[in-house]
Design goal:
Helix content: 25-40%
Protein name: DUF397 domain-containing protein
Domain DUF397: 14-69
Distance between the termini: 42 Å
Order of helices and strands: HEEEEH
Pfam families: DUF397
Strand content: 15-25%
Number of domains: 1
Number of helices: 2
Largest sheet: 4 strands, antiparallel
Amino acid sequence: MSLRDEVASELATAAWRTATKTSSNGGDCVEVAPLSGGRVALRDTKDKGTGPVHVFTPSEWDAFLDGAKKGEFDF
């Protein structure tokens, strides 16, 4: 089984969690799901079935969280 097939299989049964802080545009937000090997999947709640899913390695996810906590993505 290829890595792509493995990830697709995991996504079909992933335990998605919605962000606890909603946005100001009617509650649309993101969901995350833990995958094997410490990977993390991310998707938009309004495109759950048809939209893209982004999969991050543990180091990518850690770097993102670190940046978010430090305000690197604040507008």
